[in-house]
Design brief:
Elements (H helix, E strand, L loop, with lengths): L2 H13 L3 E6 L4 E4 L2 H6 L3 H4 L13 H12 L4 E9 L5 E11 L2 E8 L1 H23 L3 E6 L2 E5 L1 H7 L3 H4 L11 H18 L2 E8 L5 E10 L9 E7 L1 H32 L4 E3 L2 H8 L2 E7 L5 H14 L4 H22 L2 E8 L2 E8 L9 H6 L13 H7 L2 E7 L2 E9 L21
Parallel strand pairs: 11-15
Antiparallel strand pairs: 1-2, 1-5, 3-4, 4-5, 6-7, 6-10, 8-9, 9-10, 12-13, 13-14, 14-16, 15-16
Helix pairs in contact: 11-12, 12-14
């Protein structure tokens, strides 16, 4: 090789970003470029005419000698990786591509230490994440366009499907209906758009057909691009939902027992005049209703009084019994306006008696407050119909009271056959005048 050609080769070697070398099949470096000095810390003079096996990590000596044997047999070696000792004692990972020509080896190599370190870090991180996914009592997974791309073992336990059966499938397979699938997608992804995370309770159908209650929480990996995937957690809340339902039923039973006790007690104390009734008892009266009027303000009271008074007269109730009865009706209307913002009044005839019912949509009377609300003169609880049942008891032959958390209905009845009341209009305050 003439001097000009040798200079061209040297310039080419030193301009390369990769590690370039010429070695012989005995394992000696013959020519190296400058990049070797940067990667291993040795000068080229320290590396040249030395067997490169002396720089190889002890664990890599055997595979390196096997590779050298292949090169002696004139076989190309591609993507071989071993470790070379740096001058500071550390080791660098080197990836080789080598071509034999007679007893010479022409090779290009690359320092992949950083890549190996990154791969090891990712492997450790993946193992760490896999350990969390496996140990987590919560179902964890990832979807892309609502298609499963990863699920942990807990998801498989919850659904009864294997990992292989779930991956690549649309999550629609877990929903008992298309409507529920669409509802969850719409509500959850609206939450993600607004808050970055979405949570919703839904139903999943297991492989065996059993329905379970599930709490789903989801968040996108990249809020700017949901196509990269959405991670989710799924918690089986079937037991919690069942416990809540059992507790609700138990509390309902306790409430019903309390109401029954108070119903019988109040009915006994009032000689049967006041009945704490069920909803169907009220409906029996309302099926015979001949009029219905809404009222909301104190200014409505006199209009309602005139309507009720005219109705009662038309049914044969008049004179002092009518005046007393209208006073009781006024007390019920007064309470509905003050404590529930008004309501609806109805009237009709049942079992030879005129009845007038006042219904409101207030919070009702609590069970424990029923005795005081109905039997104690002047008792008042703001959230209830509440005040003055003693007045109503004085002027009506019978009262039916139905109260729930969503409203109260009180029905006053007056027999068309006269009965002895023991009161006169002079003895009873007309509460219509108190409606303000």
């Amino acid at each position: 090789m003439d001097q000009a050609s040798e200079l061209d080769v040297d310039a080419f070697f030193d301009a390369a970003l990769d590690l370039l070398c010429i070695a012989d099949t005995s394992g000696n470096f013959l020519k190296l470029n400058r990049e070797w000095e940067k990667v291993l810390g040795y000068s080229r003079q320290e590396l040249l005419n030395r067997q490169f096996i002396t720089f190889v990590h002890p664990d890599d000596v055997e595979p390196t000698l096997e590779t050298l044997s292949q090169l002696r047999d004139q076989k190309e070696v591609l993507n071989f990786v071993n470790r070379y000792r740096h001058k500071d004692g550390s080791y660098r990972w080197i990836e080789w591509r080598s071509v034999p020509v007679g007893n010479l080896i022409y090779a290009a190599a690359r320092d992949i230490t950083d890549r190996i370190a990154t791969e090891l870090a990712l492997k450790e991180k993946s193992a760490h994440i896999a350990s969390i996914l496996k140990a987590s009592p919560t179902g964890i997974g990832m979807v892309v366009n609502r298609v499963f791309v990863d699920v942990n073992e807990r998801i498989c336990e919850m659904t009864g499907y294997s990992r292989e059966e779930l991956l690549g499938q649309n999550s629609r397979m877990l929903y008992p209906s298309q409507e529920e699938y669409e509802r969850v997608g719409k509500e959850k992804y609206e939450q993600i758009s607004a808050y970055g995370i979405g949570s919703i309770e839904t139903l999943w159908q297991r492989k065996d057909g059993r329905i379970i209650n599930v709490l789903l929480s989801s968040a996108p990996i990249n809020p700017e691009n949901w196509q990269e995937g959405v991670t989710f957690t799924a918690t089986d809340i079937t037991a919690r939902i069942q416990a809540e339902e059992d507790r609700r039923k138990y509390e309902q039973q306790v409430e019903e027992h309390k109401r029954l006790f108070y119903r019988e007690t109040i009915k006994s104390v009032t000689d049967g005049k006041l009945d704490i009734a069920l909803g169907e008892d009220v409906q029996r009266y309302y099926e015979t209703s001949e009029l219905a009027e809404d009222f909301h303000f104190a200014s409505d009271a006199w209009r309602i009084r005139k309507i009720i008074e005219t109705f009662c007269r038309s049914k044969g109730l008049c004179d002092e019994p009518l005046g007393l009865f209208i006073t009781g009706v006024g007390e019920a209307i007064n309470n509905a306006i003050k404590h529930a913002g008004g309501g609806t009044i109805r009237a009709g005839i049942l079992n030879n008696a005129v009845w007038v019912g006042i219904s409101d949509k207030g919070p009702g009377i609590e069970t424990l407050a029923l005795p005081g609300a109905t039997l104690r003169r002047g008792f008042s609880t703001k959230p209830s119909l509440g005040m003055g049942y003693s007045i109503m008891l004085d002027v009506a032959d019978r009262i039916v009271l139905h109260t729930e958390s969503y409203g109260t209905t009180v029905i006053l009845m007056k027999n068309l056959i006269p009965s002895s009341i023991g009161l006169s209009m002079e003895e009873l305050l007309d509460t219509w005048d108190s409606i303000v």
